[in-house]
Structures are given as structure tokens and as C-alpha cells.
Amino acid sequence: MRYHKIPDETIRRLPVYLRALLFLSEQGRQSISSRDMAEFFGVKPWQIRKDFSYFGDFGTRGVGYDTGKLAREIKKILRLNIVRKVALIGVGNLGSAVLAYPGFKIYGFDIAAAFDNNPKKIGRKIGDIIIEDTSSLSSLKKRKINLAIIAVPQEAAQQTADALVRAGIKGILNFSPCYITVPKKVKVITIDIAMDLARLPYYMPAG
Ligand code: ATP
């Protein structure tokens, strides 16, 4: 089943809910009230009820929400109910940190391949992964990898994205601080932590 009408804002919050629900489930907590959930998620209770209303009613009055059921449903909506292999391009400082980050696992992501164009890095092993030459990106299709993370310098981001599209990649998480153009069927999400930091002072008291 596809869920056509879920707003992007709700989709943005679903991974937050999922992470908390998986944590609660792991702790053996089978249900949670919407008030506790709001506190746990840092979101208003009405917001939670509204978000969940887009995909059915998982709450029982007086008992609360079934954590396991809700987590499974959110995974289904986000299409995270399978392990998804991800390729990393650019194994510099940022890329290495991404490779070492354990937080991808809870969502079912497996960073299964890493590429770089620096001959000194190609062939080097990081954990279980051997860094490959970017000239072999086309192998991704065969390996059924359709998600990629770009961590190359800004000036190499567009050409990397083009190569990834040619290799059949359908989703790109772009850490390069620039806009990249891709065909419509490919989804790009750009994360620029400096840009997020740049919004913060506006909200802080002056002085
Ligand atoms: P280092 O100094 O170890 O290279 P860094 O994080 O300072 O690390 P950056 O210049 O940001 O390096 O580049 C990030 C990584 O992207 C590096 O490993 C670099 O070799 C790699 N890289 C640069 N251009 C490309 C490209 N066109 N294709 C693939 N990888 C690239």
C-alpha cells in the first residue's frame, strides 16, 4: 500500500518517532500514551495525533499507542522494512566519520560500499569495507545498491551525482554544501551543517 497524502513535514518527523519507538520497544515498553510520547519526542500531543491520523489509528483510549505496531507501520511507510544497502562516495574526514557512525543501523541501513578517487585511499580497508575506485561506480546496479551518500568536496559533487545517476542510484544524501541537479526520478536531500548553524544566532538573545 502506498500512502499518497502524507505531508513532507510529517514524513520528516516519522524517523524521529521511529527512533524513539524502537528504543521504547527495546526497553520492553509495549504501549505509551500520547502525552508521554509528546514529552519523549519533544513534539506537541496534537501534532502527534495529527501525524498518526494520516496512516490509521494505532492508539487505544486509556492504554495508549502500541509501540511495536506503530514502529512497524512507520517502517512500512518509510519503506525501511528491508535492509537497504548504501554506497559512500568520498572517504575524507567527513566520509570516514559517516562510515564509523553506528546510527544508520536502527533504520536498517548498511553502508556496503565506499568509493574515492585518491589512489592512496583506494584499496584501503576501513572496518569490513575496502575503498573502491570511483571508476567502478557502475557496479552499483549489479550489487542492488540504489542509495548513496556524497561526501566529496563541493567542486566534485555534481560530477559524482551524475555518475551515481548513471549507476542507477535513486536516492542521494548530499553532504557537499551545494545544490546538485539530478533527473526527476532521483531524490536528493542536502545536509549542510554550517547552514543549520547559520540559522541559530537569529533565535538567540542578542548580546
Ligand atoms: P583528506 O584530506 O583525507 O582527503 P578531507 O575530508 O579534507 O580529507 P576533502 O577534500 O573534503 O578531503 O575530500 C573528501 C574526500 O573526497 C577525499 O577522500 C577525496 O579524496 C575525495 N574526492 C575528491 N574528489 C573526488 C571525486 N571526484 N570522486 C571521488 N572522491 C573524491
Summarize the structure.
The chain is an alpha/beta fold. It is 39% helix and 19% strand. A hairpin with a 2-residue loop joins strand 6 (125-126) and strand 7 (129-133).
Could you walk me through the main structural features you see in this protein, from its secondary elements to its overall organization?
The longest helix has 19 residues, at 8-26. The strands form two sheets. This protein has a seven-stranded mixed sheet, with helices on both faces. It is globular. Helix content is 39%, strand content 19%. The chain has helices at residues 8-26, 34-41, 45-53, 67-78, 93-100, 154-166, 193-203, and strands at 31-32, 59-60, 64-66, 84-89, 109-116, 125-126, 129-133, 147-150, 171-174, 187-190. It is of the alpha/beta class and 207 residues long. Helix 6 links the parallel strand 8 (147-150) and strand 9. It is built from seven helices and ten strands. The mean pLDDT is 92. Helix 1 packs across helix 4 and helix 2 (34-41) packs across helix 3 (45-53). The structure holds adenosine-5'-triphosphate. Residues 89-95, 116-118, 121, 134, 152-153, 156, 160 line the site of adenosine-5'-triphosphate.
What is the distance, rounded to the nearest whole angstrom, between the alpha carbons of the first and last residues?
53 Å
Which structural category do the helix and sheet elements fall into? Answer: alpha/beta
Shape: globular
Tally of DSSP helical segments: 7
Unreliably modeled segments: none
Summed over residues and divided by their number, the pLDDT gives a mean of 92
Percentage of residues in strands: 15-25%
Question: Can you list the ligands bound to this structure?
Answer: adenosine-5'-triphosphate
Spatial order of the strands in the main sheet? 6-7-5-4-8-9-10
Helix content: 25-40%
The secondary-structure element order is: HEHHEEHEHEEEEHEEH
Number of strands: 10
> What Rg is obtained from the alpha carbons, in whole angstroms?
20 Å
Q: Characterize the main sheet.
A: 7 strands, mixed
